[in-house]
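thread from #wetlab-drylab

HS: before we spend reagent money on co-crystallization trials with magnesium ion, can we at least see a predicted complex? here's what I'd submit
DV: go for it
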Amino acid sequence: MLEINNLFASVADKPILKGLSLAINPGEIHAIMGPNGAGKSTTGYVLGGRPGYEVTGGSVSFDGQDLLALDPHERAAAGLFLGFQYPVEIPGVSFVQFLREAANAQRKMRGEEPLSGGAFLKLAKEQAALLRMDMDMLKRPVNVGFSGGEKKRAEMVQMGILDPRLAILDETDSGLDIDALRICGEGINAIMRRPDKAVLLITHYQRLLDYVKPDFVHVLANGRIVRTGGPELAHQLEEQGYEAVVQEGA
Ligand code: ADP
Ligand code: MG
Ligand code: MG
């Protein structure tokens, strides 16, 4: 589904990704872990097509298409979803309005009819219930005054509505208390754990992986994957720290 091959990328002329390779098949859940500044968020941004993140080498294919040749909205329409480490606030735009625009923009790009008001509301209510999110919250401006946990749960509602094939989730667990962590984990499983979908979880800690069990765990350091293992690698990182594991893999 996703094949990243020897990817190099720079931000503000500073090389960050230095030969990153990773392949993800349908039905798989992958986790990328790594120290602060390793290039985890950069990986997500490059795959999502964020301006300012310049690819200087390598290739990425998504379902056989050259992902890097697509604009961000084309990547989304192709089935890619990027969850942000720091979701943005948008004063003046209600969450339901935002979600409906996003869902229908994506449908339009795929040549599908827009959802009717009723159909959209039904879908939004189902996804909100899955994330234990009150519909009244979604009538408020996007993320304005939301707690860290509410922002992440709202983002998972957005993911449920857009129904992507590949979700790249950047530190979805940061700022979550135990209950919100479990709710988000269960939401990710309910929405994404399907034979035709895949997830790339970017995380510092192993705790989210207790809920969303990865098939593969990768360690990113200095802009490359330096180790790959199963779920046990996340436990080893938690116990021994990144430094020991990165050196072992070097
Ligand atoms: P991680 O998510 O693994 O903590 P990031 O991908 O956010 O790491 O950052 C990787 C490196 O890129 C860091 O050293 C960071 O300081 C640098 N970086 C990120 N954005 C910029 C920017 N706009 N200008 C310069 N350096 C940046
Ligand atoms: Mg970080
Ligand atoms: Mg980051």
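DV: Residues 211 and 225 are 23 Å apart (CA to CA).
HS: ok that's useful, forwarding to the group
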